[in-house]
Amino acid sequence: MGNYDEDTAFLGQKGPFFVILFFLLNAIYISTGFHGLYIVFVGASPSHRCRVADGNLTEEWMKASIPNETVHGKPQPSQCWRYSLEAVRNLSALGYSPLDVNLTDITLERCVDGWSYSTEIYHSTIVSEWDLVCDGEWRVPFATSTLYMGYLLGSLVSGQLSDRFGRKKVLFASLAAEALAIFAQSFSDSWLLFCVLYFFVGTFQISLYITAFVLGSEVLSKSLRVLFTTLGAFLHYCIGYMVLPWIAFAVRDWRSLLRVLSGLTVVYVPLWWLIPESPRWLLSQGRVLESEAIVREAAKKNKVTAPALIFSQSEVKEAAASQNSKYSALDVLRTSDIRKTTFLCLLLWMAINIGYFGLSLNTTNLSGDPFLNCFLSAVTEVPAYIVSTFLLKSCPRRPVLSAFLVIGGGFLLLVQLIPESLQTLALALEMAGKFGFTMSFTVVYIYTAELYPTVLRNLGIGMCSSAARVGSITAPYVIFLGTFNKYLPYILMGSLTVASSITNVFLPETFEKVLPETLEQMQKCKRTENLFLFHQHHTTLLSAGIRDSQKI
Description:
The chain is mostly helical and 552 residues long. Helix content is 66%, strand content 4%. Among the domains are: 48-117, no CATH class; 327-551, Growth Hormone, Chain: A (Up-down Bundle). It has 21 helices and six strands. The N and C termini lie far apart (56 Å). It is a multi-pass membrane protein. This is Solute carrier family 22 member 5-like protein. Its main location: membrane.
C-alpha cells in the first residue's frame, strides 16, 4: 500500500468522481452544524423570577415582593429569592403600600412556589420546563457535558468499528442513529432522560464526523484533500452552524426544534448509493478486487483508462498480509515515537476544544440578541477557514498552528483589560479569539490525519478526539465560572491555549510529505526527520565552533 497515490495517479486530481464525492461528503457535514450546538437554544435560560402565587396582592405588591440584587456591578431583580410571602400578605392586609415600609427588613425566602419565565425570546426550553435555575442551575452545564461525554465514547468506538467494518457502513449507521436519538430526545419527560439521550447523540455525532473525515482523506485526490479538510468539512459544518439560529428563531419551542432538526436527516438517505467505500481501507483488509472495482469505476467517471494492473504485485501481497494484522488502540502506543506523537496531539486537541466549545457555548451570555450572536459567532469562522485553507497549501503545519494558538489565547487574555464602557471592544476581542481557535481547530485535524498511517489513522484521530472530549466536557463548566467572575473563563482558556502553543514544536513536520500507509512508514518518517534535525543541529554547532575559533 506504500504507493497507493502513485498507483491511482492516472485518475487525475479533479475529475467528476472526486468533485461529486467532495460535495456529497461536505453535505453530510451541514447536518453536524445543525446538531452540534442546538443546546445553545434548547438549554437557554429565559429571564425569570420567583412566582408569587397570591391573587389577592396588588400588582404593586407583586412587583415589590422581588428584591433587587447586584450582578456584575449592575442592579437587577433577583431570580432566586423573594420576600416572605406571608409577611407581604400581612402588610398588604394592613393597608400598607410598598412605599410605606422598609422592604429590606422583610425576611427573604427561596422560590418555594416555582418560577415565572419570560416567553419573549423562548417559548419553551428545558430550563423553563424543568426549572433548571438557582440551586438546579448546575444541571444545564452538566446536560451540555453529556453530549461531549458521548463524544468521548464515540471517538474511541467509532475508530475501531470503522477500521473493522468499513468507513461507509459506520458513516451511515451513525447518521441514522443520531437522527433517531435526537427525535427520541424531543419526547423526554425528565431532565435525566434528556441527558441520557443527549449522551447517545454525542456518541453517534462524533462517529459520523470522524468517519466522514477519514473517508474523505483516504478517497479524495491530493489536491482536494486539503480543501476537503478545511473549506470542505469545516466550512460546511459552519454553514449548518449559521443556519441553526434562524431555524431556532422560527421554532421557539425546544421539542419542536429537535423534531425539525432530526427530520432534516432524511435528505441524506440517497447518499448511501452515491458514496463508495474507501479503496485504501479495502486494501488494508486484503480486499484487493473490491478496491480495484471502485478505482475502475472512478476512472470511468473521470473518463480515463485504467491500467490492466492497478496495484503492484508486492502491494497486493502486502494487502493480503495486512488482512491478518488487526490493529487496536494499543498499537497507537506501541513504540516511543508513536506514544510521543499521540501524547502531544492529545494536549493540543484538549486545549483547542476547551477554547473553541467554550466560546461557542458562551454566545447566549453575551449582550444583545442570542440568535444574532450565535450567527455572528458562526460567521466569524468563515474567514478563518478560508485563510487556513490557503496557509495549509503553502505553509508548514507546526509554525502555523502555534501562531493560531497564540492569537486565540492572547486575545482572550486581553478581554479582562477592557473597561465596562467598551463592551463592543470586548466582544470584538472574543470574536478574534474565536477566529484563532477556529483556525487552530482546522489545522490540528489535517495535521493529525497526516501524522498517522492508513492502518491507524482512524484509531489515531479517534484517540486524539477522545482526549479532546476532556476539554469539551470541561468547557461548559469553564463558562459556568463566569457566574462568579465574568473574566475567569477568559483567563483560564487564554492561559491554557498560549501554554499549549509550544507543544506541536516537538511533532514531526508533515508538509509536502506523502501520507504514510503503514506503521513502519510512519516510524521511518519520524526517524528520518529526527536524523535530519540532529544533523542540522550538529552542523550548526560545528559552524559556530569554527566561527569562534576564527575569532580566537
